[in-house]
Amino acid sequence: MPPLFCDTDLARRIERAETKFITASTEAAQRRTGGSGFLISVAGGVASYAEPDSPWNKVAGLGFAGVPGENELAENELAEVEEAYATRGAEVSVELSNLADPAIGELLTRRGYRLASYENVLGLPLGGATELLTPPGVEVRPSGDQEFGTWLQVVLDAVAHPDSEGLPWLDDFPRHILENAERDLVAAGARHYLALVDGVPAGGASMNIQDGFAQFSAGTAPAFRRRGVQSALLAARVADATAAGCDLALVTVQPGSRSQRNVQHRGFDLLYTRATLVR
Fold first, then answer.
1. Which of 66, 116, 162, 260 is close enough to 253 for a disulfide, judged by CB 3.0 to 4.6 Å?
2. Whole-number Å distance between alpha carbons of 94 and 47
3. Last residue of a domain, which of 120, 135, 165?
4. Chain segment 114-138, per-residue pLDDT in tens
5. Cα separation, 22 vs 24, whole angstroms
6. In Å, what is the CA distance from 50 to each residue of 58, 102, 185, 228, 253?
7. Are 278 and 116 in contact (CB under 8 A)?
8. Are residues 189 and 239 in the same domain?
9. Phi and psi angles of residue 234, each rounded to the nearest 5 degrees, phi first
10. How many structural domains is the chain composed of?
11. CB contact at 8 A, 250 and 119
């Protein structure tokens, strides 16, 4: 098949789904913490805060529904968002697609935001025949509540030893905060998968479905890397996303990383890049 082309309409749909995903996760965090966070709609996107140091603390989805403007109190929409973060002692981190309205980037620059990092969004069209990969000794199965603790520990171990290729992730979240975020994902409806190598838990993955898109994330414990675990986890989720009627599978990776190389080898195409700008 020819490479998947991403125009601004597709990017808008993906960013809208990402906004819903972040919103659902933050709402789950609010239920867990008693409502100490916030969700603020801004220019078609959302400003989210779950708890201190959370990966859900960010502004996403901007640039596809106009530029934040002045309200009746002559205060900029972004100023309101910035104040909400400031009262909680948090910086403002904006994820901005390179297909978004360039005026958003200009506005952020004027307000003192600086470029901090990038991440790539890749996609795989769904709907055709699927192939389940079964490398020798590798088993992948859906993971239920009864083994969530096992799934969580292998994923956290993977995150603690990130990919050494390509650009590094910007954030280094505390382990207990990542554990909270994974629990919030469960509460928001994400499906989980556990990979075993010769019967030993070796990797974990999740799949979240929004608006016909299946969003994937995964990790492999360091001792089991280069054994085909990621390929097996990916194939299982592609099959399930196809069966669920999804149009597109999505992954977000660091540019130049082994993760990007692996998913491109499995047929994913680079759709666009997000820049992270911080104030």
1. 260
2. 9
3. 120
4. 999 999 999 999 987 667 777 889 9
5. 6
6. 9, 28, 12, 35, 22
7. yes
8. yes
9. -65, -45
10. 2
11. no
